Amino acid sequence: MQHILIAEDDVNIASDLKQQLLNEGFSAEVVFDGLLAEKIIARKPFDCIILDINMPGKNGLEVCKSVRSRKITTPILMLTAFGEVEDKLQGFENGADDYLTKPFFFKELLARVRALLKRGAKQQQALQLITINDLVIDLSAKTVNRGDAAIKLTAREFEILTTLAETKGSVVSKKELIKKIWGTSVEVNTNTIEVFINSLRNKIDKQHEVKLIHTRPGFGYFLSATPHEA
Length: 230
Prior knowledge:
The protein has eight helices and eleven strands. The protein has 230 residues and is α/β, with parallel strands linked by helices. Helix 1 (11-23) links the parallel strand 1 (3-7) and strand 2 (27-31). Helix 2 runs parallel beside helix 3 (60-69) and helix 6 (155-166) crosses helix 8 (190-204). The protein starts with a strand and ends in a 7-residue tail after the last strand. The model has no long low-confidence stretch (mean pLDDT 88).
């Protein structure tokens, strides 16, 4: 069930919105103060946020700006009693995804919320995939494919490959890999990393003309379709 936060200081509007969203099959939570909304958004995930501009504590523009500064990408629909273009521009500049002027019909708000949820789902799905040339790493399913072939990796191999892939072509040293994969409480010899890298090369590169796993002597390893990229 998709969870929606309604940040609206008008009790009647907030209660009505919550009930109608519940009727449509969503779960909904209401908050009447901007400062409290900011704290709740930082503490728990939502699928969409309906955010009124005029609220006590912090206004919606300030809350929206703060949320985006925390790298929270939840879709935000701004509500306001004003229809001025300048107000809309401020909303978008502060990170809002859409804008609705009061008074409005619930059907229109519902259509906009559903559009934002659909867009957010696509963005989230894209974030779960890392693609390098014809190599596709699915972070959610924990699967790896190269071209049409599925590649079976151990948990450690998957972690090492993902760590390299997430740096987007930058070099990762053996020590960095050890710290990321094993942590600092376990002593791991750098030769262990070499063994894993060799295993990954056999599984990922051996049957392909384009090699993706590269070594920068004295520095570490990187993933790229072009060996001189890093």
